[in-house]
Amino acid sequence: MTKLRAATNREPVTGNREPRLGAHMSVAGGLPLAVDRAVAHRCDALQIFAKNANQWKGRVLPRDEIRAFRSRIDASGIASVVSHASYLINLAADGRALRRMSLDAMGDEIDRAEALGLLGVVLHPGCYTSTSEAVGLRLIAEGLLELLSARRRGRTMVLLEHTAGQGTSLGASFEQIAAILGMMRDHARVGVCLDTCHLLAAGYDITTDAGYADTFVQFERLIGFDRLKAFHLNDSKRPLGSRVDRHEHIGQGFVGLEAFRRIVNDRRFRGTPMMLETPKTEGRRATSVEVDPLDEWNLNALRALIARPASAATSRRR
């Protein structure tokens, strides 16, 4: 990777004219510390794991920790918070044991997000196993309907994350996501999270003006912008159509700065949370709340791309 030069943009980014930039933050030391980390990085959006992403079951969240987390969010001014579901969950699996474990784990993820007052839970749709794409998509839709029907009074959404399409993973095309939504009868509590690395890897060329325009024409036609609830902003270590999910620092991969410039300045996405999932600095204390230099660099790289109103630029020159 090209060596990252020190970021210099320290100006706070606020206001509804601009996107809500943030990052995935560690919950090491307790959920409230994730909020402190987001504040230290001047985030307007936040993603967390509400439980260990590599385990089926998570620790019970104490009520005082939940209250402290919600209080910290209220005081922080962070507008949007989501959790990311465990990587073990596979709602497309047809095996009885794995499917039951996946449903139980996803139900727990939704319950945790509800208790924490989160916008939604980001979910990789799943991978079909011994069946087919069509059966896998149906199983995902049926599973989510079962989980949400059992939680009719809830408000937390499930955000289907568009995937890179590696192996038998589902959700790499807008058509597949639209199929899940259609089988769920356009359920009001299901949205979509787009990942820039995944878009490129899946074959959506957002690196050119024409490719970017065509990508979102397709998205609007097949899914609709009302379903788009979040972005993951990640560059890609692999080129267009690679089907390989490998995240890179902003502007250091095959997505490139111009694609990110288009997204952060796109009027259609104002107010949409946009969160980094780029590599973190290694060797830091797990419970540290200090600014991560790599997170700071990536956030400032995005902030520097935001076009300022002419009046603001004129006032600064004066």
What this model shows, in words?
This protein is an alpha/beta fold. The chain contains ten helices and twelve strands. The chain is globular, with a radius of gyration of 19 Å. The model is unreliable at 5-15 and 312-318 (pLDDT under 50).
What structural class do you assign from the helix and strand content? alpha/beta
Strand order of the biggest β-sheet: 1-2-3-4-6-8-9-12
CATH structural fold name: TIM Barrel
How large is the share of residues in beta strands? Answer: 5-15%
The fourth-level CATH homologous superfamily is Divalent-metal-dependent TIM barrel enzymes
Give the helix proportion (percent range): 25-40%
Q: What count of structural domains?
A: 1
Low-confidence stretches: 5-15, 312-318
**CATH architecture term:** Alpha-Beta Barrel
Largest sheet: 8 strands, parallel, barrel
Radius of gyration (CA) equals 19 Å
Query: Terminal Cα separation, in Å?
Result: 39 Å
Mean pLDDT: 93
The outline comes out as globular
The total count of helices amounts to 10
CATH class: Alpha Beta
Task: Label this structure with key terms.
318 residues; alpha/beta; TIM Barrel; 8-stranded parallel β-barrel; two-stranded antiparallel ribbon; 10 helices
Layout of SSEs?
Elements: E1 20-24, H1 31-40, E2 45-48, H2 63-76, E3 80-84, H3 96-116, E4 120-123, E5 126-127, H4 133-149, E6 157-161, E7 169-170, H5 174-183, E8 190-195, H6 196-201, H7 209-222, E9 228-233, E10 235-236, E11 247-248, H8 257-264, E12 273-276, H9 293-303, H10 310-317
Parallel strand pairs: 1-2, 1-12, 2-3, 3-4, 4-6, 6-8, 8-9, 9-12
Antiparallel strand pairs: 5-7, 10-11
